[in-house]
Amino acid sequence: MEKGLEQLKKHFTSIHPLNAEEWRDLSGIWQLHQYKRKTTLTVAGETERHLYFVLEGIQRAFYIDAHHEATLVFTYPYNFSGIADSFLTQLPSRYFLETLTSSTLLRTTYTQLQQLMDKHRNIEKLIARSASFALMGVLERHVELLTFSAEEKFRTLFKRSPHVLQLIPHKYLASYLGMDATTFSKLMATVRIE
């Protein structure tokens, strides 16, 4: 738990500084949880009550309906996980969150975090800044999905996160990139990753 909190502090500090009292209060709301592979953490239609910080493992958020399944995002150490829009708005999620591998996560609740934001204005600033960076990432990804060719999407993903090829099933990577499994397989065979 202590090592996990050190990683969490490092992550938060890179976003926005906290004083000793703020960090003490913030570090006190997290609990360590371990989950088996393929555990559903959030179900579409339910409100996301938890924010996670990943210590070990890989998770994926995805959308599914009668005709489609689309992987939206992967999370892995040392990043946040959860269905962010549902967590921040406390409205029902349209998405699922599951563990792809056994996962060790720090977890807190919306209520605990909200109480700290009410107590410490600086923690509220930290969460707002974190949400801003998350939004920036979503918009960058949106541009990639709309404007990049299949090969450009493939190269961009593996330049940014080269480790995912060995860790995540290719069908989920193809879904994340917005392409079918055949196109993904062709790119695997022909594109050289540097």
Tags for this model:
single chain; 194 residues; alpha+beta; Jelly Rolls; 4-stranded antiparallel β-sheet; 9 helices; 51% helix; 21% strand; globular; cNMP-bd_dom_sf
What does this structure look like?
The protein is an alpha+beta fold and 194 residues long. It folds into two domains: 133 residues, Jelly Rolls, CATH 2.60.120.10; 47 residues. It is 51% helix and 21% strand. It contains nine helices and eight strands. A four-stranded antiparallel β-sheet has the order 1-8-3-6. A four-stranded antiparallel β-sheet has the order 2-7-4-5. A hairpin with a 4-residue loop joins β4 and β5. α4 packs across α5. The longest helix is centred in the C-terminal third of the chain and has 27 residues. The model has no long low-confidence stretch (mean pLDDT 93).
At a glance:
With 194 residues, the protein is an alpha+beta fold. Helices cover 51% and strands 21% of the residues. α4 packs across α5 and α8 crosses α9.
Task: Give the helix/strand layout.
Elements: H1 2-15, H2 20-27, E1 31-35, E2 40-42, E3 50-56, E4 59-64, E5 69-75, E6 80-81, H3 84-89, E7 96-99, E8 103-109, H4 110-119, H5 121-147, H6 150-160, H7 164-167, H8 170-177, H9 181-190
Antiparallel strand pairs: 1-8, 2-7, 3-6, 3-8, 4-5, 4-7
